[in-house]
């Protein structure tokens, strides 16, 4: 008997929505300025070391 | 223009290079040359610090902020009859503080005489303004150091029939020049006037019709050495004679050494080794912008660190090094095994916009993270922002760096724009040099590969579409044609590293690539468990779908994703 359980939960954002981080992520650009980055993912796969609570659904941002 | 060294190469051709340069260099008489040298070394000042045929004359201005230097360039009849000579000198500021010498910007100037006229080549705009240096207001200007005299002396070595002209910087209490040796030492050969003075020094040597008499030219420092390509033609002509032995405190600074240089048309830097003579343990070496905006260099030189201690040397701020470079392939020999990133290591934009970079060997930077014994270096802040951004024909990234940061500073994303717009990327892996998976003590990292592996701009849906990459820059007929995969293609071989996709469905970075990336990701589970943060890897849904489910990113299986999540990476699809 064989069973597989990877304890992964798939979350798909609702229509017109994407996921972003609850707590902003940042990186430094080439000039050392801190830039806020966004996830904007349609699908996330949550494993045992992560939680859906770290993400929030937001409206798809309008591209400038 | 560029020149290859041959036995019949004449100094005149080198002179042609000098004459051809713009920026203040033009045909001039000896007297005009003196004036030109004045303007070179005295900045905007036109004070006549050089006089001809005068020895040891010193004039000091009564102004506390203006020093007039009287020196001479003695070109006697015999020298003039010798026809050709070249004078190479450098300018540099040297500080002495706490028994420690430091050197600041160094410019190289060349004067060439063809017997009747003298041509100057160098930064005729004057010495770089180093007034921001602590304690200094302008070059050759120090109220506390008294007067300066710069003189050139000449003599003829009748044994070698060599005309030697040297420039001295002398004042009361000065030390006699000690640079007189068989080698032309750029940057050496004079002596400082005082502990805080700036000084000019150099050697002039007479060259025979061929270049056989050119001694080995040692370059003691490379900071700004060929910035903006100002000395390209000269360097190219004497490239084989150049020995890059870096010593002294400023030997650690290679910033802007060849920024914007056009060197590489005929020179092969693979034959060059840049020796860093280590001063002390933990010496920092700054490679920032060393080859930035360099359009033609094919391969970088090899850096050789000589360290007698057990400590590793460090590479500091190795960033934007090959910006816009035509380098096709990076050699794993560039950095030695004992090089390592220090705690402020920075490889951001290292290859940013390297339009013709095709591959990077797995161990290229591996030793920058792990020392020779395999111990990871604890980096507090290592940045890889846009490291491979816009490398449009880069087909593989192997051994992508990750830094075993300390958790206290591990909350900043080091991978912003890491591989954005790598249109033809097939593979990206993070394995250690020995092929094993590493450990990364960081969180809030995001590796965004959603724009990677497919061409999105400017390429028509044309089966014959191709990217022309010239494998050998000087041979325009030898080019790489990267074939396109299109909607109408049959038998398109996605496994061919020389292929690229012109839309998302034909992306070459697809499910199979993602699985390889995931398998190589460093383990961040410990950092995630303790910090509560997240590490994310982003893929593009639908990438590679035209090749079937095995390549369709949307078909990533739970088992494949689980490998990432177990190591603390959350997989997302955009």
Keywords:
heterodimer, A: two-stranded antiparallel sheet, 6 strands, B: alpha/beta, five-stranded parallel sheet, 11% helix, 20% strand
What's the gyration radius of chain B in Å? 28 Å
Q: Which whole number gives the mean pLDDT of chain A?
A: 85
The secondary-structure class of chain A comes to mainly beta
Compute the average pLDDT of chain B.
56
Given the C-alpha coordinates, what overall shape of chain A results? flat
Q: Tell me which protein chains meet in the greatest interface and how many residues each side has.
A: A-B, 29 and 37 residues
Structure notes:
The complex is a heterodimer of chains A (64) and B (574). Chain A is mainly β. Chain A contains no helices and six strands. Chain A is flat, with a radius of gyration of 15 Å. In chain A, 22% of the residues are buried. Chain B is an alpha/beta fold and 574 residues long. In chain B, the strands form six sheets. In chain B, strands 1, 2, 3, 4, 5, 6 and 8 form a seven-stranded antiparallel β-sheet that branches. In chain B, strands 7-9-10-11-13 form a five-stranded parallel β-sheet, with no helix packed on it. In chain B, strands 12-14-15 form a three-stranded parallel β-sheet. The N terminus of chain B is likely disordered. Chains A and B meet through strand 2, strand 3 and strand 5 of A and helix 7, helix 8 and strand 24 of B. Strand 5 of chain A pairs antiparallel with strand 24 of chain B, so a sheet runs across the interface.
Can you give me a brief rundown of this structure?
The complex is a heterodimer of chains A (64) and B (574). Chain A is mainly β and 64 residues long. Helix content of chain A is 0%, strand content 41%.
Topology:
The complex is a heterodimer of chains A (64) and B (574).
Chain A: E1 9-12, E2 17-21, E3 25-28, E4 34-37, E5 43-46, E6 55-59
Antiparallel strand pairs in A: 1-5, 2-6, 3-4
Chain B: H1 11-20, H2 30-41, H3 77-81, E1 85-96, E2 101-103, E3 107-113, E4 118-121, E5 149-157, E6 162-170, E7 184-185, E8 198-206, E9 217-218, H4 232-237, E10 242-246, E11 273-277, E12 284-286, E13 302-306, E14 313-316, E15 339-341, E16 359-360, H5 366-369, E17 396-397, E18 427-428, E19 446-448, E20 467-470, E21 479-485, E22 499-501, H6 511-520, H7 525-531, E23 535-539, H8 558-566, E24 569-573
């Amino acid at each position: 008997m064989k069973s597989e359980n990877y304890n992964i939960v798939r979350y798909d954002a609702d229509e017109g929505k994407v996921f972003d981080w609850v707590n902003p992520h940042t990186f430094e650009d080439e000039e050392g300025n801190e830039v806020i980055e966004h996830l904007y993912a349609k699908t996330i796969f949550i494993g045992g070391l992560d939680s859906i609570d770290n993400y929030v659904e937001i409206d798809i941002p309008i591209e400038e | 223009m560029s020149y290859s060294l041959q036995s019949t190469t004449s100094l005149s051709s080198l002179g042609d290079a000098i004459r051809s340069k713009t920026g203040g260099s033009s045909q001039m008489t000896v007297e005009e040359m003196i004036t030109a040298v004045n303007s070179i070394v005295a900045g905007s000042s036109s004070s006549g610090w050089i006089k001809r045929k005068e020895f040891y004359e010193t004039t000091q201005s009564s102004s506390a902020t203006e020093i007039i230097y009287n020196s001479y360039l003695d070109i006697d009849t015999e020298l003039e009859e010798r026809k050709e000579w070249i004078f190479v000198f450098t300018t540099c500021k040297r500080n002495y503080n706490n028994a420690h010498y430091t050197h600041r910007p160094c410019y190289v100037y060349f004067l060439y005489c063809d017997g009747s006229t003298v041509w100057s080549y160098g930064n005729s705009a004057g010495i770089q303004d180093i007034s921001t240096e602590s304690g200094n207001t302008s070059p050759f200007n120090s109220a506390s150091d008294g007067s300066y005299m710069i003189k050139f002396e000449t003599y003829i070595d009748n044994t070698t029939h060599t005309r030697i002209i040297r420039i001295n910087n002398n004042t009361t209490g000065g030390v006699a020049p000690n640079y007189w040796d068989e080698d032309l030492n750029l940057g050496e050969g004079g002596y400082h006037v005082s502990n805080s003075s700036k000084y000019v020094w150099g050697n002039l040597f007479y060259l025979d019709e061929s270049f056989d008499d050119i001694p080995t030219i040692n370059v003691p420092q490379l900071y700004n050495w060929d910035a903006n390509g100002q000395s390209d033609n000269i360097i190219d002509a004497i490239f084989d004679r150049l020995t890059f032995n870096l010593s002294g405190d400023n030997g650690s600074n290679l910033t802007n050494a060849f920024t914007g240089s056009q060197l590489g048309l005929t020179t092969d830097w693979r034959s060059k080794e840049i020796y860093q003579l280590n001063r002390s343990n933990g010496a920092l070496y700054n490679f920032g912008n060393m080859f930035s905006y360099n359009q033609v260099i094919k391969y970088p030189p090899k850096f050789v660190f000589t360290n007698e201690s057990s400590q590793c040397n460090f590479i500091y701020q190795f960033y934007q090094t090959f910006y816009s470079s035509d380098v096709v392939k990076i050699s794993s020999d560039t950095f030695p095994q004992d090089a390592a990133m220090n705690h402020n290591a920075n490889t951001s934009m290292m290859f940013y916009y390297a339009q013709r970079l095709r591959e990077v060997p797995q161990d290229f930077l591996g030793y920058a993270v792990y020392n020779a014994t395999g111990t990871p270096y604890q980096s507090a802040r290592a940045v890889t922002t846009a490291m491979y951004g816009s490398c449009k024909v880069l087909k593989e990234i192997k051994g992508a760096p990750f830094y075993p940061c300390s958790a206290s500073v591990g909350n900043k994303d080091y991978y912003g724009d890491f591989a954005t717009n790598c249109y033809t990327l097939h593979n990206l892996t993070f394995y250690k040099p020995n092929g094993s998976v590493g450990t990364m003590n960081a969180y809030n990292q995001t590796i965004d590969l959603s724009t990677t592996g497919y061409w999105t701009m400017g390429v028509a849906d044309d089966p014959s579409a191709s990217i022309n990459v010239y494998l050998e820059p000087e041979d325009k007929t030898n080019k790489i044609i990267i074939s396109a995969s299109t909607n109408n293609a049959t038998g398109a071989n996605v496994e061919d590293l020389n292929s690229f996709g012109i839309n998302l469905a034909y992306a070459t970075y697809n499910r199979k690539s993602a699985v390889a990336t995931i398998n190589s990701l460093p383990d961040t589970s410990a950092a995630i468990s303790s910090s509560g943060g997240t590490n994310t890897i982003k893929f593009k849904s639908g990438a590679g779908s035209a090749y079937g489910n095995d390549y369709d990113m949307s078909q990533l299986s739970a088992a494949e994703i689980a490998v990432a999540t177990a190591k603390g990476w959350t997989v997302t699809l955009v």
